[in-house]
Design goal:
3 strands; 118 residues; three-stranded parallel beta sheet; alpha/beta; 19% strand
């Protein structure tokens, strides 16, 4: 979809949250990076680590999640240190996890991204 946009050299930062809804399958990460860099040639591309422990990701482990995002960093994405995280930790306290904005990691990720963009 990013290829449908006109080239925008003024965009300095792109923040993506990817992985959770495709069950952390590798797909075409290199093609995604190339497409984003072509459309936004001067942008730094940040990737937020997703969530697991729910739905089709109930058997995903933190080790698998970290390996997935390591692939992004190896080709040029900048990864956040904080992941949305293991929803089994939040599902009893927060209704509709991971879609509940009150989950503490969302605020931590927001602060981290704010600091990255300074």
């Amino acid at each position: 979809m990013v290829s449908n946009y006109k080239t925008s050299p003024k965009v300095k930062n792109i923040v993506l949250c990817i992985g959770t809804n495709n069950n952390f399958r590798t797909g075409n990460i290199k093609q995604l990076f190339k497409a984003v860099k072509k459309t936004f040639p001067n942008a730094t591309i940040y990737v937020i680590k997703g969530s697991w422990g729910w739905g089709n990701n109930d058997k995903i482990t933190p080790k698998e999640v970290n390996a997935y995002y390591d692939m992004f960093q190896k080709i040029g994405f900048v990864g956040t240190a904080t992941a949305i995280g293991d929803m089994t930790l939040y599902s009893k306290k927060y209704a509709n996890a991971p879609h509940n904005a009150g989950i503490p990691t969302y605020a931590a990720i927001g602060k981290e991204v704010d600091n990255l963009l300074k």
